[in-house]
Design goal:
Order of helices and strands: HHHHEEHEEEEE
Number of helices: 5
Strand content: 15-25%
Number of strands: 7
Oligomer: single chain
Bound molecules: iron/sulfur cluster
Shape: globular
Helix content: 10-25%
Strand order of the largest sheet: 1-2-3-4-5
Radius of gyration: 16 Å
Length: about 170
């Protein structure tokens, strides 16, 4: 899913990776998570590139735009997509390939994700794993496993920094 805005790492290209066109739900196209989009072309690319949905226009994985992600962590190689970044008030998401829900636990990935989680604890950020419907927050040496989420549930963080799984309609 690409445009070419500023802020992307110069020598990284999507190439044949189509992970974000597969792993994510695209509501505008009624495309479910874990199904390759019907507009994805063999070898990579999009056959409606000029008219692609906004969700596709705005998304770039962290491998494309955060220079702390190692070069060889392109999502079609790791089995998960990193999104966002580790920064105060923000979080780094790890969305696994639905066919490889434990991909993030393989090494060297797991050790690096937990190192980022420890770094996040110091600066007010988190690493959050989305593995099928399951959500796990990594913190220092702890895994907060919130189990499976229904479409009507979301994860929130209170003012004290604690996470809670709550009904979506309770969030303002
Ligand atoms: S997951 Fe990242 S590298 Fe792969 S196609 Fe999407 S933006 Fe490109
Ligand atoms: S519309 Fe294009 S960019 Fe968006 S998910 Fe489908 S193939 Fe990917």
């Amino acid at each position: 899913m690409s445009g070419e805005p500023s802020g992307l790492i110069a020598d990284r290209a999507c190439g044949s990776c189509v992970s974000c066109c597969s792993f994510f739900t695209i509501a505008e196209l009624e495309k479910p998570a874990g199904t390759l989009c019907s507009h994805s072309m063999p070898g990579g690319g999009c056959d409606i590139y000029a008219e692609r949905p906004n969700a596709c226009r705005v998304f770039f994985c962290a491998w494309r735009c955060w220079d702390q992600v190692p070069d060889d962590w392109r999502p079609d190689r790791t089995g998960f997509i990193l999104g966002g970044r580790l920064a105060a008030g923000s979080f780094l998401s790890v969305t696994t390939d639905p066919d490889l829900p434990e991909s993030w636990r393989a090494e060297p990935y797991c050790s690096q994700l937990k190192a980022w989680a420890r770094q996040g604890d110091r600066i007010g950020s988190q690493v959050v794993v989305f593995s099928r419907q399951r959500v796990i927050v990594l913190q220092a040496d702890t895994e907060l496993d919130f189990g499976d989420f229904s479409p009507d549930e979301v994860l929130i963080r209170d003012e004290a920094g604690r996470f809670h799984k709550v009904p979506r309609n309770r969030v303002k």
